[in-house]
């Protein structure tokens, strides 16, 4: 694969993959869980701190290990079976489900914006999958450049909303003292934090581009840390803006809070602004997941760990894109769109993805003890405090998800373990 991805494009992939539809829809859920403006902002800040600590921790791996992404970080730290299971879960469910979910949201919002009655949202979603796949098949550089442009565009509506609130007169949002007005404050804050952490999902996928970055040792670390910091700032400012415009009680549990807030700021134009913002945002997130997701089967096939590895491990001579891997991931995504069960599938893999993310954070401590002489161009600051925050945050998500969504977590774990027969079959051969 050619080294053609710059720092800016990697940064755009982090921001673009994380900021999807959640920035517009999560506020209704979180406000109903914690019950106050101050606690709402607090859970976003805590979620951001945990995510940044996780990014700082895993950045030590990305600078130390000259391998291709999180799959091979797990290979190196724990053995090949762990990397395979992570990649298997991503390839079979995680990436296709994310692409299916985002393109389906795009289809629904596209119909709403242009008032296309009688047009099936699934049709638009599938057309978008084909379009994005076509862009990605043109080459990594083309897809990465598009990701940069879309990320800039998706930040414009958010910047307009925040700017309009901060530069016009609105009632200040009470941020102190911090109060939690849930029936059970501990449960309310826990659920709110869990919801906020889910909105940071997806940043680790940028590690799949490590072998295609011009200077991965330096730029991958910077992209992860700066990207997560900017995402945290966006989430905090946008949520503050929504609460400054609307009465807090009208936001609680309201899935359309962003729409009404923008209407309050910009009038009739506001509704179209939010819808356009959602379109651009989910489009960029879908492209980010496709850009990184089609490389998962390729990475596994490079070590002959999948059936048809000879096909899945090949890249186009002209563009350097893993063509057969792209067809596989997007074919599964289209099936999910047609079946309409992508949301459940996405939820099933939350437990699995965070389990592996937590294992990656633990790997930093493991390698510090096992290989103290390993070259570390970037060392996580304030060691071991920051890795411990990342580990505790990840463990919190894993445990909470397991108890709140027990059945889905068990099914997700079962799907992941279905990869074991393939792993041992290929190993025996």
In a nutshell, what does this entry contain?
Helices cover 76% and strands 0% of the residues. With 429 residues, the chain is mainly alpha-helical. Its main location: membrane.
Description:
By secondary structure, the protein is mainly α. The protein has one domain: Up-down Bundle (Amino acid/polyamine transporter I). The protein is built from 19 helices and no strands. The two termini are 27 Å apart. The model has no long low-confidence stretch (mean pLDDT 88). One of its GO terms (molecular function) is L-amino acid transmembrane transporter activity. Keywords: Membrane, Transmembrane, Transmembrane helix. It is found in: Membrane. InterPro entries: AA/rel_permease1, AminoAcid_Transporter. It is a multi-pass membrane protein.
- Total number of beta strands: 0
The CATH architecture assignment turns out to be Up-down Bundle
Termini gap = 27 Å
The name of the CATH topology is Amino acid/polyamine transporter I
Question: Number of helix segments?
Answer: 19
Number of domains: 1
Percent helix, as a range, is over 70%
* Low-confidence residue ranges: none
Query: How much of the residues is beta strand, in percent?
Result: under 5%
Shape, please? globular
Give a quick account of the main beta sheet: strands, pairing sense, barrel closure: none
Protein structure class = mainly alpha
Instruction: List the secondary-structure elements in sequence, H or E.
Output: HHHHHHHHHHHHHHHHHHH
Radius of gyration, whole Å: 21 Å
| CATH class (first level) name | Mainly Alpha
CATH homologous superfamily?
A: Amino acid/polyamine transporter I
Give the averaged pLDDT, no decimals.
Answer: 88
């Amino acid at each position: 694969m050619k080294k053609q991805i710059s720092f800016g494009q990697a940064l755009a992939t982090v921001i673009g993959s994380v900021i999807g539809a959640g920035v517009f829809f999560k506020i209704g859920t979180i406000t109903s869980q914690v019950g106050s403006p101050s606690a709402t902002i607090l859970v976003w800040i805590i979620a951001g701190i945990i995510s940044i600590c996780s990014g700082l921790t895993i950045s030590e791996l990305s600078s130390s290990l000259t391998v291709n992404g999180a799959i091979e970080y797990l290979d190196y730290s724990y053995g090949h079976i762990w990397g395979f299971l992570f990649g298997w879960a991503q390839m079979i469910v995680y990436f296709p489900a994310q692409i299916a979910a985002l393109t389906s949201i795009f289809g629904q919002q596209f119909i709403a914006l242009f008032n296309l009655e009688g047009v099936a949202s699934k049709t638009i979603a599938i057309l978008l999958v084909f379009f994005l796949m076509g862009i990605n098949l043109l080459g990594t550089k083309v897809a990465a450049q598009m990701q940069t442009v879309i990320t800039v565009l998706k930040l414009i509506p958010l910047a307009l909303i925040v700017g309009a609130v901060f530069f016009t007169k609105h009632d200040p949002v009470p941020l102190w003292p911090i109060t939690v007005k849930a029936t059970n404050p501990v449960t309310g804050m826990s659920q709110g934090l869990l919801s906020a952490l889910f909105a940071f999902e997806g940043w680790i996928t940028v590690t799949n581009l490590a072998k295609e970055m011009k200077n991965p040792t330096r730029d991958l670390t910077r992209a992860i840390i700066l990207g997560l910091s900017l995402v945290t700032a966006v989430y905090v400012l946008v949520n503050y803006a929504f609460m400054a415009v609307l009465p807090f009680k009208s936001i609680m549990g309201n899935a359309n809070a962003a729409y009404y807030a923008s209407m309050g700021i910009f009038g009739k134009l506001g509704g179209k602004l939010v819808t356009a913002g959602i379109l651009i945002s989910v489009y960029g997130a879908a492209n980010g997941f496709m850009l990184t997701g089609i490389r998962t089967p390729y990475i596994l096939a490079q070590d002959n760990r999948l059936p048809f590895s000879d096909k899945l491990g090949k890249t186009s001579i002209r563009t350097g894109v893993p063509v057969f891997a792209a067809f596989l991931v997007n074919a599964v995504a289209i099936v999910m769109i047609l079946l309409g069960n992508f949301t459940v599938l996405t939820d099933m893999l939350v437990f699995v993805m965070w389990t592996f993310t937590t294992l990656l954070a633990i790997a930093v401590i493991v390698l510090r003890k096992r290989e103290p002489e390993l070259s570390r161009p970037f060392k996580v600051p304030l060691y071991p405090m920051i890795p411990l925050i990342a580990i505790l945050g990840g463990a919190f998500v894993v445990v909470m998800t397991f108890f709140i969504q027990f059945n889905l977590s068990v099914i997700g774990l079962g799907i992941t373990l279905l990869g074991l027969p393939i792993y041992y079959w290929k190993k025996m051969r």
